[in-house]
Amino acid sequence: MSGSQKTLAELGLTARSGQNPSVTGISVDSRAVAQGHLFAALPGVKVHGAAFVTAALENGAAAILTDAAGAELAGPEIKAAGAALVVTEEPRAALAYAAALWFGRQPENMVAVTGTNGKTSVASFTRQIWQALGLPAVNLGTTGVEGDWEAPLHHTTPEPITLHRALAGAAEAGITHAAMEASSHGLAQRRLDAVRLKAAGFTNFTQDHLDYHHTFDEYFAAKQGLFDRVLSDEGTAVLNIDDPRIAGLADQMLEDGRCVLTVGRHEDADLQLTAQRFDGTGQDVRLSYDGQVAMVRLNLIGGFQAENVLIAVGLVMATGVAFNDVMAALPSLRTVRGRMQLAATRTNGASVFVDYAHTPDAVAKALKAMQPHVMGRIIAIVGAGGDRDRTKRPLMGEAAAANADLVFVTDDNPRSEDPAAIRAEVMLGCPNAFEVGDRAEAILRATDALGPGDALLIAGKGHETGQIVGDVTYPFDDVEQASLAVAVLDGKIA
Ligand SMILES: CC(=O)N[C@H]1[C@@H](OP(=O)(O)OP(=O)(O)OC[C@H]2O[C@@H](n3ccc(=O)[nH]c3=O)[C@H](O)[C@@H]2O)O[C@H](CO)[C@@H](O)[C@@H]1O[C@H](C)C(=O)N[C@@H](C)C(=O)N[C@H](CCC(=O)O)C(=O)O
Ligand SMILES: Nc1ncnc2c1ncn2[C@@H]1O[C@H](COP(=O)(O)OP(=O)(O)OP(=O)(O)O)[C@@H](O)[C@H]1O
Ligand SMILES: N[C@H](CCC[C@H](N)C(=O)O)C(=O)O
Ligand SMILES: [Mg+2]
């Protein structure tokens, strides 16, 4: 953090004993605490951060922010060390506001997007539209900070300190427009509570992350927090009403007098997708809004990408851009790396696509999206991540079997789990699939099976560049492996 100092009061915090020390920085991890820092001891999934107060004090923490349970655990120790103690019911929210106040700046026009699938695509499209209109813009999320200012990120929605450091850095560099992803973990953990949003979008709601949220209702409630809590009363909600639960949210928000822009294929949508025609390199779409109709070229493969574009259009309009100006920018949109990306073509004309589908709905939609482009058979490679929602595994297998002619089940970041056990769970949904644990071999064998007019979808890793086994990340890139497989099989390399 910078060399500056701020008092607790300047960070919106009040200490129990009335102390108001200046702090030199903020940390959520005791290992990152430096002399004079505020340490946020947060209740975690595995352990309470208060367990690390000793380490934080040893590293020089001047103040501790925590909840009642944390104060109970570490209060006497904090008092004995003479550090200030801030206790609040919602330490994660308090941390978010403190981080925003610490860094002090964020781009003036910020929007966020949530939903099970499509967040990165929408955030990127939103940024690309702003850029095409000459506005300095970034998107933040799974693929880092991209656009007119760049930085790597390790989370889709980073914890508040990392997030506000990035937002302030972008604002300092002259960025006026930013689109960020709001993951359900990020929302549940209040990571973006202090971001000032002009608008927020909701793409779709299907199964993922039930390991963390336990039930669909809890998962939806986390996402709804973006609209109930983070988006201000004046902000615009851009909601895809083709999804019945999101339509319910739209009704509720309208009843509450909130500003809502509905989008979708649904005839009641304010911004409606009224027609869609596919060809080899993308699609033509017809959109209507407030009595205006536009025919637009999208150089994007996949019917679902038009749904993502609708949300992006709504978000950009909510920052004050006219419908026709947005329409003019759409033909320049490019897909995010690893989303329905044509990775390689065999000499017999068969194509290999790489896509980040890692939920049952995404696998189904990605394979369906290929159908209008493919005359022959569709082959799918699927796998599911370790230490993630187990219940989605057979459903991903089922989605692959239902929408492809041939399925290969392979590994995708087994992490701490037994890879064979994960594959067995996926295979429950597609018992006739070929099981090939080694991902490179699966890609080679599936590519070998491609006849003229066939196409292969390699699902799950998209832009990722590693295979996580245990604690080790081995270099692995689906696009690279696809090119390699085609080169080997078509005799371009020995
Ligand atoms: C399940 C989850 O989201 N966990 C996040 C949560 O960790 P936690 O609080 O549960 O961690 P914990 O291990 O119980 O530790 C408790 C506390 O002790 C602290 N600690 C721990 C050890 C130590 O030595 N010193 C110390 O101070 C930790 O910093 C933490 O604050 O808070 C941490 C700090 O903010 C996050 O880094 C951590 O993200 C973990 C690494 C993670 O992998 N999260 C993933 C699942 C995630 O958030 N993914 C979403 C995207 C998902 C998607 O849509 O696909 C994302 O936005 O990236
Ligand atoms: N609107 C959509 N409906 C259904 N599936 C989609 C949609 N948009 C994208 N997908 C699928 O989800 C995959 C991931 O897309 P994207 O990265 O944009 O989503 P995300 O929500 O950011 O994912 P993550 O949760 O990992 O951040 C795509 O490769 C595609 O298979
Ligand atoms: N951000 C998602 C992406 C998962 C992609 C897939 N490759 C996996 O590892 O499961 C997650 O962490 O659940
Ligand atoms: Mg994403």
TrEMBL record:
UDP-N-acetyl-alpha-D-muramoyl-L-alanyl-D-glutamate binds at residues 30, 156-157, 183, 189, 191. Meso-2,6-diaminopimelate binds at residues 388, 412-415, 460, 464. Pfam families: Mur_ligase, Mur_ligase_C, Mur_ligase_M. Residues 113-315 form the Mur ligase central domain. Pathway: Cell wall biogenesis; peptidoglycan biosynthesis. Residues 338-462 form the Mur ligase C-terminal domain. Catalyzes the addition of meso-diaminopimelic acid to the nucleotide precursor UDP-N-acetylmuramoyl-L-alanyl-D-glutamate (UMAG) in the biosynthesis of bacterial cell-wall peptidoglycan. The lineage of its organism: Bacteria, Pseudomonadati, Pseudomonadota, Alphaproteobacteria, Rhodobacterales. Residues 23-100 form the Mur ligase N-terminal catalytic domain. Its EC number is 6.3.2.13. InterPro entries: Mur-like_cat_sf, Mur_ligase_C, Mur_ligase_C_dom_sf, Mur_ligase_cen, Mur_ligase_N, MurE/MurF_N, UDP-N-AcMur-Glu-dNH2Pim_ligase. The modification N6-carboxylysine is found at residue 223. One of its GO terms (molecular function) is UDP-N-acetylmuramoylalanyl-D-glutamate-2,6-diaminopimelate ligase activity. A motif (Meso-diaminopimelate recognition motif) lies at residues 412-415. Its cofactor is Mg(2+). It comes from the Bacteria. Keywords: ATP-binding, Cell cycle, Cell division, Cell shape, Cell wall biogenesis/degradation, Cytoplasm, Ligase, Magnesium, Nucleotide-binding, Peptidoglycan synthesis. Carboxylation is probably crucial for Mg(2+) binding and, consequently, for the gamma-phosphate positioning of ATP. It is an enzyme of class 6 (ligase). GO terms for biological process: cell division; cell wall organization; peptidoglycan biosynthetic process; regulation of cell shape. It catalyses: UDP-N-acetyl-alpha-D-muramoyl-L-alanyl-D-glutamate + meso-2,6-diaminopimelate + ATP = UDP-N-acetyl-alpha-D-muramoyl-L-alanyl-gamma-D-glutamyl-meso-2,6-diaminopimelate + ADP + phosphate + H(+). This is UDP-N-acetylmuramoyl-L-alanyl-D-glutamate--2,6-diaminopimelate ligase. Signal peptide: none annotated. GO terms for cellular component: cytoplasm. It is found in: Cytoplasm. Belongs to the MurCDEF family. MurE subfamily. ATP binds at residues 115-121.
